């Protein structure tokens, strides 16, 4: 099949549950030579008059060459084809806080950005999920008598950690602040990033995107910031979609301002791409912010549509979403909302052009987030 020149970009997206794959071989550049593409179960072979290049598929992916269909040339992208595919469900997303194994252990809370110790050697005896934000209103609807929880807010005790959609609640009475005031920001002493906010004189909220919790015997491990943020947000989306069948989200800052609208498409994508092929065997690199040509891994992706809401963009749509009870809100520090928007934008730019938009939304794939601009 004529596909383009030797240095072609190859993009692969596999849907595990559907057992299907979309394969795109990059558009030929002007002056490029003819290329023959051969699809094999575990690799792709691209041949020109000057030689051959073999691109190995991710180890967990197997294509069915005889199922090739939907072959078409798309201007700006190149050759599109769909095939049956099998991809193993690899390990589950690594939880930022392992509720079962780390309970009962001594844990240390670190600032994710700089590694500063926030809480040292805290033994957590209870690690419990919080109910949804509107649980109080639901109790009022269900009860025929006065709300028994009206004056009993859910505050953790000294050895508790309560887990919300995007935050942890812990008791800091004996830790850092002598007389903390409610609704004040908690800021890292070293790097000055916003870690959370005080909820009461004893309870502090830490955002999952800003804090790493690890067993005290384990040393602090540095995780690239953008990789950490997208992993945490993707994990939040996966858990909310699974537990509450929620698929539309507003990402807002702690000041209540909406920064991003997200529409979840699917949770079962596996994405890989190879930017260039030369006359040697190449592997698909990990599809992340920095592509590593020596990596043979693929990337689990949560695929979303997104709309930015900064600089007065999409104000009417954001207002409609905020008034819709089927839309769930995730609150993060304002700076992290902007980081996430940058991550989505960069991820979107790495997609083949024809996959970057759907209606007015943008679409991107990343390490746990694949997004499309709307």
TrEMBL record:
Transmembrane segments: none annotated. It catalyses: S-ubiquitinyl-[E2 ubiquitin-conjugating enzyme]-L-cysteine + [acceptor protein]-L-lysine = [E2 ubiquitin-conjugating enzyme]-L-cysteine + N(6)-ubiquitinyl-[acceptor protein]-L-lysine. GO terms for cellular component: cytosol; nucleus; ubiquitin ligase complex. Its EC number is 2.3.2.26. GO terms for molecular function: cyclin binding; ribonuclease inhibitor activity; ubiquitin conjugating enzyme binding; ubiquitin protein ligase activity. It comes from the Eukaryota. It is an enzyme of class 2 (transferase). InterPro entries: UBQ-conj_enz_E2-bd_prot. GO terms for biological process: proteasome-mediated ubiquitin-dependent protein catabolic process; protein autoubiquitination; protein monoubiquitination; protein polyubiquitination. PANTHER family: E3 UBIQUITIN-PROTEIN LIGASE E3D, E3 UBIQUITIN-PROTEIN LIGASE E3D FAMILY MEMBER. E3 ubiquitin-protein ligase which accepts ubiquitin from specific E2 ubiquitin-conjugating enzymes, and transfers it to substrates, generally promoting their degradation by the proteasome. Independently of its E3 ubiquitin-protein ligase activity, acts as an inhibitor of CPSF3 endonuclease activity by blocking CPSF3 active site. Interacts with UBE2C/UbcH10 (E2 ubiquitin-conjugating enzyme). In vitro, interacts with cyclin-B. This is E3 ubiquitin-protein ligase E3D. It comes from Cavia porcellus (Guinea pig).
């Amino acid at each position: 099949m004529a596909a383009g020149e030797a240095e072609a970009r190859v993009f692969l997206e596999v849907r595990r549950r559907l057992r299907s794959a979309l394969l795109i071989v990059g558009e030929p550049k002007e002056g490029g030579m003819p290329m023959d593409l051969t699809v094999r179960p575990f690799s792709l072979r691209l041949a020109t008059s000057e030689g051959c290049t073999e691109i190995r598929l991710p180890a967990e992916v197997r294509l069915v060459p005889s199922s090739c269909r939907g072959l078409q040339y798309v201007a700006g992208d190149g050759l599109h084809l769909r095939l049956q595919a099998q991809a193993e469900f690899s390990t589950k997303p690594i939880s930022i806080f392992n509720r079962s194994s780390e309970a009962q252990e001594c844990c240390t809370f670190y600032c994710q950005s700089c590694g500063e110790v926030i809480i040292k050697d805290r033994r957590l005896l209870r690690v419990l999920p919080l109910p949804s934000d509107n649980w109080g209103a639901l109790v009022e609807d269900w009860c025929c008598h006065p709300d028994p929880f009206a004056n009993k807010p859910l505050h953790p005790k000294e050895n508790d950690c309560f887990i919300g959609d995007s935050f942890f609640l812990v008791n800091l009475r004996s830790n850092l602040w002598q007389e903390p005031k409610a609704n004040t920001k908690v800021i890292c002493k070293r790097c000055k990033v916003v870690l959370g906010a005080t909820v009461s004189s004893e309870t502090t909220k830490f955002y999952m995107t800003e804090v790493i919790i690890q067993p005290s015997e384990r040393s602090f491990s540095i995780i690239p910031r953008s990789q950490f943020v997208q992993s945490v947000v993707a994990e939040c989306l996966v858990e909310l979609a699974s537990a509450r069948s929620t698929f539309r989200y507003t990402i807002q800052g702690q000041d209540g301002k909406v920064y991003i609208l997200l529409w979840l498409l699917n949770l079962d994508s596996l994405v890989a791409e190879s930017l260039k092929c030369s006359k040697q065997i190449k592997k698909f690199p990990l599809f992340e912010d920095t592509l590593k040509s020596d990596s043979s891994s693929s990337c689990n992706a949560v695929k979303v549509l997104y709309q930015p809401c900064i600089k007065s963009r999409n104000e009417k749509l954001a207002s409609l979403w905020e008034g819709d009870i089927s839309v769930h809100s995730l609150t993060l520090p304002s700076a992290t909302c902007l980081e996430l928007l940058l991550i989505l934008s960069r991820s979107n730019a790495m997609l083949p052009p024809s996959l970057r938009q759907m209606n007015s939304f943008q679409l991107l794939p990343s390490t746990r987030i694949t997004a499309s601009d709307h």
